[in-house]
Amino acid sequence: RVAESGGGLAQPGGSLKLRCTTFGFTVGDYSIGWFRQAPGKERETVSCINGNDGITYIADSVKGRASVATTSAGTAVVLELSNLKPEDTAVYYCAAENGGWGSPSQFAYDYWGQGTQVTVSS
Q: Maximum distance among all alpha carbons in the chain?
């Protein structure tokens, strides 16, 4: 399974780090995706990483403001968001796909966390 952490209240223009911790497996064998869902909106892709080769995908909505990387221990993926905007407010989910190539499609992912709330407000 996977579990998210690091959400909370942040100010516009600020930054935060979200962590997706894996339990029972290492990231190297999986692809990890980050997704978010704002109230009244559909869930959308934020970023994905192929744990095997490290290739990443960053959605246009956060391009230039987001980065994603695997920790050195290989048991977590960290999503960093900077220059936060109110429209970044959402529940952020991470998900894992056994193998795969880091697909940005949420339908490729098998294991989902419970989500962590991010609120960007002054």
A: 40
Neighbour tally for 62: CB within 10 Å: 23
Angle ∠(54,118,45) on CA atoms, nearest 5 = 40
Average pLDDT over residues 75-84: 96
The pLDDT tens digits of the residues spanning 44-58 come to 999 999 988 889 999
Report the alpha-carbon distance of residue 106 to residue 20 in Å, rounded.
16
Strand partners, 111: 96
Give the residue from 73, 74, 44 showing the smallest Cα distance to 59. 44
Are 24 and 98 contacting, i.e. CB atoms less than 8 angstroms apart?
no
